[in-house]
Amino acid sequence: MKLFLSVDMEGITGLGDDTFVDSRKLNYERGRRLMTDEANHVIAEAFDQGCKDVIVNDSHSKMNNLMIERLHPDAKLITGDVKPFSMVQCLDDTYTGAMFIGYHARASMKGVMSHSMIFGVRHFYINDIEVGELGFNAYVAGYYEVPVLMVAGDDKAALEAEQLIPNVTTAVVKETISRSSVLSLTPEQSGKLLKEKTAEAIKNRNSVQPLIPLDHPLLTIEFANYGQAEWAALMPGTEIISGTTKVKFQAENILEAYKAMLVMTELAMHTAFC
Is 104 annotated as a binding residue? Predict the structure, then answer.
């Protein structure tokens, strides 16, 4: 078995606000250690359950957060930015399954530090289906017929996963109080939970089907500010939907839609607020 781990940061145990996930702020180094330890719990159990190869993709911000010197010695790490497929870089049809660790709820939903790629996004749509990072990444996995076996993070991320992926295993390491406060397990408690849920997910892997995307998907991104929509619509093939802050792009497949999303959100971040 070969396992792909996409590890984000906002859904990691004990991380309640942006001081843990922003490299400029005081709790970031604590957040990095907790993130790395959490990945290690899943990696170790995956090897114990018979996985022969575990590839870990650092999926937060500049994607250089996981501490390789503390990572399980038998895993391999994808780190750094820019990556053409960001949170799902190097995922392909050679994998038995994928797991999303440290994940959070999509933009405009209740959940700790909820967002979709950037804070200027209100909603992502694939055709008429609203998705966040979790859903978009699951569709890319589905393109390669790889099922998402487990999602770990806060309670709202788990709920989002369960609504989107039948029979997915979820590991709730903290419960949302507000967007910047949580009721969290301790690292020791969450480590035990993650090992139990990883074993359960691997044993139940045949009960989870890949989330297969439609051909020629229509990507629509609703931004918070019209200036963001203007920037995003500079990408060829895009169009602002009149009277809205929504920008649409007709993609050939989900891979093209994913790259378009990355370009559109990067462009949107050039918007000045003054």
Answer: yes
CATH of 2-118+132-207, one of 3.30.1380.10, 3.60.40.10, 3.40.50.150, 3.40.50.10780: 3.40.50.10780
Tell me the three state secondary structure of residue 148: strand
User: b/e for 94-126, b at 16 or more Cβ within 10 A?
Assistant: ebbbbbbbbbbbbbbbebbbbbbbbebbbbbbb
Query: Is 60 marked within a binding site?
Result: yes
Q: CB neighbours of 242 closer than 8 A, spacing ≥ 6?
A: none
- Give strand pairing partners of 9: none
Mean pLDDT of 249-265: 98
8 known member of a binding site: yes
**Model pTM score:** 0.97
Per the prediction, the chain carries an average pLDDT of 97
The set of catalytic residues is: 115
